[in-house]
Automatic annotation (TrEMBL):
Short name of one Pfam family: ROK
Top-level lineage group: Bacteria
Database matches in InterPro entries: ATPase_NBD (IPR043129), ROK (IPR000600), ROK_cs (IPR049874)
Keyword Metal-binding: no
Entry EC no(s): 2.7.1.2
CDD domains hit by this protein: ASKHA_NBD_ROK_TtHK-like
Enzyme class at the top of the EC tree: transferase
The organism of origin for this protein: Deinococcus budaensis
Keyword check for Transferase: yes
Name of the molecule in the record: Glucokinase
Alphabetized GO MF terms: glucokinase activity
Keywords recorded for this protein, A-Z: Kinase, Transferase
Amino acid sequence: MTQASSDPTAPFPAPAIGIDVGGTKIASGVLIGGELRGRHVQPTPETGWPAVLDAIAAQVQGLQAQFPDAARVGVGVPGPLSLDRRRVKFAPNIYGFTDVPLVEGLEERLGLRVVLENDAKAAALAEAHLGAARGTGSSVYVTVSTGIGAGIVLGGRIWRGRHGIAGELGHVTVMPGGPVSGAGLDGALEAIASGTAIARDASYALNRDVSTAEAFTLAAGGHPAARRVVDQALRHIGVALSDLQKLLDPEVFVIGGGVASVGDAFFEGVQAAADEYAGPFAPVTIRRAQLGGDAGVIGAALAAGQEGA
Ligand code: ADP
């Protein structure tokens, strides 16, 4: 039941397998005509990258046994990729994932063409085609989670830029002299407004361990220091979106990720700051991600559909 479409950027030419490799789990499924089927999840091996590649290959083979028409494979990973998108430079949340020849390793194991994508970019593609930005010609997806990532989708395709770094919103400097990020630069957005940063700042302010979720709960209850930490983070995210609006003027921003799952308090804070800093320019349209945990798998399958053999 493949869905025909007259859209030249239609990403569903054939059933495609999507794999989303995370720090704790590997999720997979088959995208058929815009519908995700055969969902499968297993823990991510913690014994080095060859074991992760073996696990991915086993999931692909299991899905192919169920869906023999699925000959395209897309894999999303949480880390920067080489410019040719055949290697993962590093994925700090996956044990042993440094300079991994993922495409070569999987193509050897499977005898199939494999397309590699960054997980935030994959989610951006998914939300653009099948989620909250469906029907738009331009969108920016932002994930506010352990870190902050983003993907820019123009005309149904990911905008990568000259070096493939387009969308590295978490590494945009918003406070020179601020906290130093994992990339070694001070004042990056994710060092100030990610889930990790909120927990760090709330823990410092309250002089005990405070999780991101608890920081939001305390803030909602009116705790002054927790409120200050949360408000500052949301303000920085909103300001960053207003900056992107002036730079790219996309039709819509979509925000997902664990921190955004807080819901109303998160989105109201971000929208208020975005509106304030949009000033007399264009309004900033922000929507909640719709695909939740499926976004990475769907996006990886879409990437394979767009670029697969
Ligand atoms: P990942 O970063 O691995 O993609 P998530 O998208 O789940 O994972 O994001 C994890 C981050 O989201 C952590 O910083 C965590 O504390 C935060 N988080 C998860 N659930 C909530 C919640 N209900 N409220 C606030 N923060 C949350």
